[in-house]
From TrEMBL:
Gene from which this protein is expressed: NATD1
PROSITE patterns associated with the record: GNAT_YJDJ
The N-acetyltransferase domain, residue ranges: 19-109
Protein's UniProt name: Protein NATD1
Pfam families registered for this protein in UniProt: Acetyltransf_CG
Organism phylogeny: Eukaryota, Metazoa, Chordata, Craniata, Vertebrata
Signal peptide range in chain numbering: none
Top-rank taxon: Eukaryota
Family to which this protein belongs: Belongs to the NATD1 family.
């Protein structure tokens, strides 16, 4: 029964939960229990600047909106902590273009 619940994590009615590991500087979404995960990696490149470097979703889970949740969580973190963001990751660049919210745009490093 637990296995069926884990497989439903990507159903539209089931909320995708993003976890933030500040020590490892990553945002993750656990997929299918704890075996697979989607991840967004970042590094501090200055005292108040983070580089959002890489987003990766396993092939089997692509196209389901998981990366959007990771991008939103990372950008919300930048806004909440009043940081500047450098966008190395092409996916986050795309996300910001599709979601040009003022709070995101004003935290982007020129």
């Amino acid at each position: 029964m637990a296995q069926a619940t884990q497989l439903n994590i990507l159903e539209p009615s089931f909320p995708i939960q993003v976890e933030h590991d500040r020590k490892r500087r990553q945002f993750t979404v656990r997929l299918n229990g704890c075996h697979d995960k989607a991840v967004l990696l970042y590094e501090y490149v200055g005292k108040r600047t983070v580089d959002l470097q890489h987003t990766e979703v396993p092939d089997a889970y692509r196209g389901r909106g998981i990366a959007k949740h990771l991008a939103k969580a990372a950008l919300d973190f930048v806004v909440e902590e009043d940081l500047k963001a450098h966008l190395t990751c092409w996916y986050i660049q795309k996300y910001v273009k599709e979601n040009p919210l003022p709070q995101y745009l004003e935290h982007l490093q020129p």
